[in-house]
Amino acid sequence: xxxxxxxxTWKELGAFHTVMAATFHPxxxxxxxxxxxxxGEFLEKALALEQGKIPASFNTPGIRKAIxxxxxxxxxxxxxxxxxxxxxxxxxKLSELHEVFHTIQGLCRH
Length: 110
Prior knowledge:
Radius of gyration: 14 Å
Distance between the termini: 12 Å
Largest sheet: none
Low-confidence stretches: none
Order of helices and strands: HHHHH
Structural class: mainly alpha
Number of strands: 0
Number of helices: 5
Helix content: over 70%
């Protein structure tokens, strides 16, 4: 119960989830405009997650490592969306980061 409450009040995780959902799910349908337009926001929310206060139950090496991967991946997404990266590369990177996010979600349950 404590973990559920902590997860629900972890504002940075919720904010990151919002931008992840708004960019990843359209990409599954072939719409890359959301990630191309919001890669900076994706990185901003990942950085806020990294720099914010992680609830005590979730402040573990595994979760901190995964958050670091989201930040590094967010930086890469910004480079990819401002550069000449192709759609397939962008979809692959966003899918990888979606899996990292699900790793965090899973670690928050255990």
